[in-house]
Structure formats: C-alpha cells, structure tokens
Amino acid sequence: MAFTLALRNLVHDKIRLAVTLTGVIFAVVLISVQIGIFIGFTRTISGVIDNSGADIWIASKGLKNFDIALPMDERKVYRTLSVPDVEKAAKFIVQFANWKKPRGGQESIQIVGFETRSGLGGPWNVIQGSLGALDIEDTVFVDELYLDRLGLEGVGETAEINDRRARIAGMTRGIRSFTTSPFVFASFKNALQYSTVAEDQTIYILVKAREGADLEDLKGRLAVAVGDVDVFTTAEFSALTQHYWMFSTGAGVALLLAAGLGLVVGMVVVAQTLYATTMDHLPEFATLKAMGAPNSYIYRIITLQAALSAVVGYSAGMALSLAAARASRHGDALVLIPFEFAAAMFAVTLAMCLGASFISINKVTRIDPLVVFKGR
C-alpha cells in the first residue's frame, strides 16, 4: 500500500517528476564522469610504471615524478647487480623529445628506452609488430591513439626524433600519456641516440627481485650499496607520481570538487521537488494521520518516493556515464568506471535522495491531523 501511494504521488505531477529525475541523472553523470576521469588519469599517470614488470625503481636523488628525472652514472647498474636478491637490473630512459612528422609539422613526445632483453619497462598491449624488431637500428613503437597527432598512417612509415630517423616497427593500443606528449618506445640503444642522455648514463635502473625476497629490506640495502639515489618499490613510485600530478598540480582537486558539486546540486534538486510534492499532498497525509496512521507509515511513503527517484535516476544516469566511458576509449582522456565504483555510486545516489527526503519528513512530523476538518 505504501509503495502504491509513493508511486502515485510521484507520477501525479509528471513535470515535477521529470525535474526530480533530471536532477538525479545530472548528479549521477557529473559525479561518475568526474571520478571516472580521476581514475582514468591516475591509471594513465602511472601506466608505464605499473606495467614495467619491475619490483624496484632506482633514480637520481630528489626525484618528484616519473616524467622528469635527471640522468645518473650507468656504473650504478653494476653496483645494483652486486646486491644479493637482485635477479636482474636494467637501464631505462624517459625524456621529452621533438617529433618531426613525415608530411611536415612537429609534436612533443616522450621517448621511452628500455633494454629489450631484460623484459623490463617495455610496451604492452602490442597489436602490430614484435618487440624483437626494436633491436633494429632506428625503430620505434607508437600507440594507435596518437597516429593522427604524429602525422602517421601506420607501421612502416618514417619520421624524425630530434633530427634522427625513426621507423615505425610496431604499434600498441591504449598506452596514453598524462602529459599529452605521446610515449614512443625504443630500445635503450636507439633511445640514447634520440635523447640528450650520454652513453655512460641512464635515467632509471629497473630491478627485478629474486622470488620471495623482502622488497622493503632489498630497497634499504640497494640505497646503501648504490649510494646517492632514491629507491622505490613499484607501488611507492606509482603512488608518488600519481600524487604529484593529481594533487601538486591541482588537477585532481578540481575533478573531485566538480564531483562534490554534482552531489550538492543533485541533493538540492531532489530535496526541493520532494518537498514540493509533500506540500501538495499535505491534506492527504493529514487525513492518514487523522485515520490513525502512524508517523512511521507516512515516513515510509516519503522515503519510498526518494528511493524510487534514486533507482530510476541512477539507472539512466549510469547508462549515460557508461556510454561516455565507452566513447572515451578512443580519446586522449580516459574515463574509467569500474564495477566497484558503479556499485558504490548507487549507494551514494540512494543516500543523496534519502538525505534529501529528511526535509519533507520533518514537515510531515509537525502536521496537525485537525487540518483535515478545518480545511487548508
């Protein structure tokens, strides 16, 4: 009975129902997309680190993020290899460079150089070509997302990196760059030619630990043995880089503020329309109280109205958000909406609508049943 009354109250004024649902949908889409962009950005920021296959990263002292680091002497690689529990250590370069397009024009890129035999730090999601091709002189891999920006049509074309020839030997899918400068993968030897790093230097040392090794203990021993370096586990380095770009630059704060704004706007719209609906049906609620209906019964009607608005609004809003996330797969900015977040978003929507119904409940609590006999 309470469900039927709640449903009738909602659909009685279809325009008001449309406004309520629009408010909920707006809030769901705004929050989901903003947080989806936040999640997508964090995955993008640390994508190369998380997919490196390394357990520990060694960098020059004072490092703040993955994208900007100073070179160090390559002899530190040999000191790294001398530490017990180190299975392998490999040199790794990442540096900004100029890309000259085949048909004219330039673009900023990040050249990523890795030791192909180590299996550490290379590209993933390879859809064309084999990693072995990168051992050939002047060969690079690019991502299909950036073909237009790099002025390319496909594998086999040639361009220039810092005025040196680069031939496209393979392609990846979905490797984005947060800095908007596309990653271009090359062997360490080729990357040296494209960068300003000296032959006896490296930017990072990637370490693979022996199975069962205590990473925290190994990290401490590496810091002592190598000397004058920063040493991170992969998880620590990933978190450091994510925190730098998302919070030190304010990008993440802006996204979270926008999501919070969506929550407030949605709650205000739902509260306003539920309150107006309650006021319209005040005589009916007074009649129910005069007939002996307890307050809990009327509260149930109002909360059911809020819950129904939440379910319908969430369904439509999440469908739109997932469509936006799907469309973002082919764009620079990735929107990620994992199942766990989508489920949590339903709880947020329900809480938002139920919270907004408290104003209406407070009004009904103070209603005098005699209003039925006095007339409004």
UniProtKB/TrEMBL annotation:
Keywords: Cell membrane, Membrane, Transmembrane, Transmembrane helix, Transport. Its main location: membrane. It is found in: Cell membrane. Residues 257-369 form the ABC3 transporter permease C-terminal domain. Residues 18-222 form the MacB-like periplasmic core domain. It holds the Pfam family MacB_PCD. It is a multi-pass membrane protein. GO terms for cellular component: plasma membrane. It comes from the Bacteria. The chain crosses the membrane at residues 15-41, 253-277, 297-322, 334-361. PANTHER family: ABC TRANSPORTER, MEMBRANE PROTEIN, HEMIN TRANSPORT SYSTEM PERMEASE PROTEIN HRTB-RELATED. This is MacB-like periplasmic core domain containing protein. It comes from Alkalidesulfovibrio alkalitolerans DSM 16529.
